[in-house]
Amino acid sequence: MYTPQFQDVLQARQRIRPYLARTPLHSYAPLNDLIGTEVYIKHENYQPVGAFKVRGGINLISQLSPEEREHGVISASTGNHGQSVAYAARLFGVSARIVVPEGANPGKVAAIQGMGAEVIAHGAGFDEAKRYCEELAQEHGYRYISSGDEPLLIAGVATEALEMLEDEPGIEVIFVPIGGGSGAAGTCIVAKAVNPAIQVIGVQSEASPTAYESWRARRLLSLPSRTFAEGLATGVAFALPQQIMQEKLDDFLLLSEEEIMRAMVYMIERAHTLAEAAGAAALAGAYRWRDKLQGKKVGVICSGGNTSLEHLKQALAAS
């Protein structure tokens, strides 16, 4: 397993370009007033699957060997990664199976099935689903796609940061949500290649702090994951994103569930956009840091918009 470099991101952009439109980067006066400085939202919630991970799915599946295509792919997901794999597999005529936790977001499950992938429900959380997925891959010879330890996935999702800095080169600080860490790792690769002075700040829920604690300890940890934000819900750290983040990530914030829910409402009220919990988490981080950001241009990655009605009601009730 190699560590992707900036050149890999440039190649990924060429592979992805025929299949995905560039997502918008918008600044909203009410959000600027809230944070007290210029804020630019990268709208990955506008992707055809509603989340950034589709970039990585297309980059990876486009590079499968003929044998891997024949056997098909399998992956574990709480939703967005699974949609990415399903979407890309359909594009390239590859059979896909997605193992989800029992009780996974029903909207995301329906979307995965609608793209033609087989959904297998197993386990109470992501980590149990992942273990079962790995067993099925070994038993049947499927190409197992990790949601974190895949260089082609990281290079693919990194194209979101590349677009952001092309559209607004003056951005000085980027906030990015972290579950497994592929998006943050990709953002670090791009930001530090374009301008090493750009700060990349990761955010995660304090109810699922595995990536944060692993980053601090500089070793891979396994911790309970209890957050309502599926995109941040990882109980086992991934080696490759952690390696990249430990080298390049400038800081890492843990957010309360209430801060994340409040940011979901800010997105609706002030940017007129629907963000799932993980998609709003970066804004929550910018709000937490607002006193440190005065006079700076700030990039916020809205990683996805696939919230459930239940989560939306919960966020509105908490605001």
From TrEMBL:
Coiled-coil parts of chain: none
Catalytic activity from the UniProt record: L-threonine = 2-oxobutanoate + NH4(+)
Superkingdom as given in the UniProt entry: Bacteria
Keyword Nuclease: no
Methyltransferase found in the keyword field: no
GO MF: L-serine ammonia-lyase activity; threonine deaminase activity
Family annotation (Pfam families): PALP
Cofactor: pyridoxal 5'-phosphate
Domain Tryptophan synthase beta chain-like PALP: 17-304
InterPro entries named among the record's database cross-references: Ser/Thr_Dehydratase, TrpB-like_PALP, TrpB-like_PALP_sf
GO biological process, one term: L-threonine catabolic process
PANTHER family in UniProt: BLL6502 PROTEIN (PTHR48078:SF7), THREONINE DEHYDRATASE, MITOCHONDRIAL-RELATED (PTHR48078)
Stated family: Belongs to the serine/threonine dehydratase family.
Entry protein name: threonine ammonia-lyase
The organism of origin for this protein: Ktedonosporobacter rubrisoli
